[in-house]
Amino acid sequence: MKTLPQTCEQCLEEYQVALEDLRSYIQRARKIGLTEFQARELIINFEVAHELALKVMTKYFEKQGKGPFSGSRDLTAEAFHADLIDDGKAWLDIVIDRIQYNPVYAIDTQDKFLDNIQHKYIHMLEKFEDVMSDKLN
Domains in the chain, start-ordered, CATH in brackets? Predict the structure, then answer.
């Protein structure tokens, strides 16, 4: 059976749930630190939240008749130009960090990535949540 495509509002709700999960992981990390397994879980939760943010952007632009986009970089640039995000370079840094963290590459970037997630990227994702909530309500 076919399912109906999600609306932008439904995608935002899904994103908000993932963002709350990420907040919980970060709070736990700040209180008691992270084991190696928990560090990977935090990164996975971040990646889910970021993917859902991109999905919200995509649905928002589809609603406006824009797109499709060739990838997350083009989508991020368009989101910056549409004032959905205010720091396009920092959002592109997320894409780069995710690529560099990929286990295919031999460089060890996990500590830097975890630090960015906990001190920089979470605030960007929260701000995006506020902007999209305002735009959709």
Answer: 8-136 (1.20.120)
